[in-house]
Amino acid sequence: MRIATCLAALLTLSGPALAQPFHHPYGEWRQYNSDWLSACPDAINENAADFSGYSCFSSTGSQELNEANLPAYKLTLVHNRLNGAIDLAITVSPSMGEYDPAKPMLLHFGGEAPIALSWGTDLETRDNVINQYFVIGADLDAVLARMTERNAVFLSVPLKGVDRPVRSRMSLRGVLASLDFMSTYARRVAQY
Questions:
Q1: Helical H runs in the chain?
Q2: What is the percent of the chain where pLDDT is above 90?
Q3: For residue 128, what pLDDT is reported?
Q4: Which is nearest to 107 in space by CA: 59, 55, 168, 19?
Q5: Residue 5 included in any domain
Q6: Which residues contact 106 (CB under 8 A, 6 or more apart)?
Q7: Within-domain flag for 19
Q8: Which of 52, 79, 126, 140 sits most deeply, having the most CB atoms within 10 A of its CB?
C-alpha cells in the first residue's frame, strides 16, 4: 500500500508536464510547464517592428524579485514563428544596479566549467531594449542543449559597482515541454 501511495505522489508531482494549453483572455494560447510559462499569441504580425509580433515565448524567473515584484532575472526562450529559429534572452532587472558589460555573465550547469557570455561576442541587445540580452553565436547551441539536459542553471550576473556577481538559480524544469508547446502552437492561428 505504501508503495502505491508513493507512486501516486510521484505521478502527481509529474503533473505539470501533462498540463493542458488554455486560451487566455489577452488573446493567446498559454501553458504552464513546471516552472516555465509558455505563450503563443493568436495572431502573427509578419510586419512587426520587433520579434514580439511574430514569436512564441517561454520564460522562467529568479526567486529574487525587484521593486515591481517581478523576477529580477529571467530566462526566456523565443520561438520565431516565421522561420522556426529559437533564441534565448536573459533579462536583468534588479532593483539596484545594472549589468556590467565589461565582465561576462556566467551560466553554471552543475559539475561543468561555466559558459562565459561576453557582451558583443556572445550577447547582444535587440529592438531598443536595454536590459534583455540575447545569446548569440556558437554558445547559443551549447546553452540550449544543456538547458534540455539539466534541471537547473546558476546565472551569475556582474553588476556595475558591485564586487561579486549576483548568482541566481534558475529552474530548467519544463524546458522540453515549453519547446514542444511553442513548436506545436507556432502556426495555430486563424490566418494560416
A1: 2-13, 138-149, 175-185
A2: 69
A3: 83
A4: 168
A5: no
A6: 114, 115, 116, 117, 154, 155, 156, 165
A7: no
A8: 79
